Amino acid sequence: MQLARKLALTLPLAFLLLPARPVFAADQLKRVLHQLDEAAKNFHTASADFEFKNIQTEPVPDTDVMTGTVYYQHKGHGFQMAAHIAQENNQPSPKVYTYSSGVFQLYDGRLDQVRKLKDNGSFGSYLMLGFGASGKELQDKWNITYLGEETLNGVKTDKLELIAKDPKVLRLFPSVIIWIDPTRAVNLKQVFDEGEGMTRVCTYSNIQVDRPIPAENFTFKTDRKTTYVN
Q1: Does residue 230 lie in a domain region?
Q2: 200 part of a folded domain
């Protein structure tokens, strides 16, 4: 009888507490998006050292690691980025990946070749993830779930799960999880689920915000022998 009485008193309390977590998560997400809106107003540039780790679990486990430096710049409604890859799997890799005016380019110094792809408006948004994107811009492109707080390298971050609203992007990335510092509108970590046993883990360090970035950092050097592939 005593146990039954305790359960009778405890269960109503438990049911009262059940809605608290979703409400808390909604409030926290609202806070993060507001902080991003405010930070984005004054965001102009960012640079960071990166490690991109491509992990394959099926059919044969494999891991590729790229390291280098990434640059972001916002001017008005314009956005451009560049990733200078220094090493792949601890071997020198003179590659530069850029995005500007809706055009992706990958320069491979070993082949002296540039591959170009025009974005149709679907894929450029994921490049802005956590680097100058406002809360409204994220909400426009992604369904967002708040997953809690986590400290990375001494920095307090908010962990968000993003599901693309665009079917084309969703086919590429079934889900994305980011660890974001909303006060600076920068990411410390991203995990892209690419489906079929493929995952890309991106980590960023030595993040510098709103410092001048030379224009040449957003391009690459070519010569008369450089070939172009569209």
Answers
A1: no
A2: yes
Span 99-140, pLDDT tens digits: 988 889 999 999 999 999 887 666 666 666 768 889 998 999
Domain extent at residue 184: 23-220
Structure tokens at 177: 């999880």
What is the rounded radius of gyration, in angstroms, for the C-alpha atoms of the chain?
21
Q: Are 132 and 74 in contact (CB under 8 A)?
A: yes
Number of domains in the chain: 1
Alpha-carbon separation of residue 23 from 20, 119, 139 (angstroms): 5, 38, 18
H-type helices in the chain, by residue range?
2-17, 20-41, 124-127, 135-141, 167-172
Render the burial of 55-85: b for 16+ CB within 10 Å, e for the rest: beeeeeeeeeebbbebbbbbeeeebbbbbbb
Distance CA(14)–CA(11), nearest Å, equals 5
Give the three-class secondary structure for 227: strand
* Ramachandran sector of residue 136 (left: φ over 0; alpha: ψ -120 to 50; beta: rest): alpha
Confidence of residue 75 (pLDDT cuts 50, 70, 90): confident
Domain membership of residue 14 (yes or no) is: no
Distance CA(70)–CA(148), nearest Å, equals 27
pTM of the model as a whole: 0.84
Neighbours of 216 (CB within 10 A): 9
Q: Does any domain span residue 144?
A: yes
What is the CATH classification number for the domain harbouring 135?
A: 2.50.20.10
Closest-CA residue to 163 (of 192, 187, 134, 197): 192
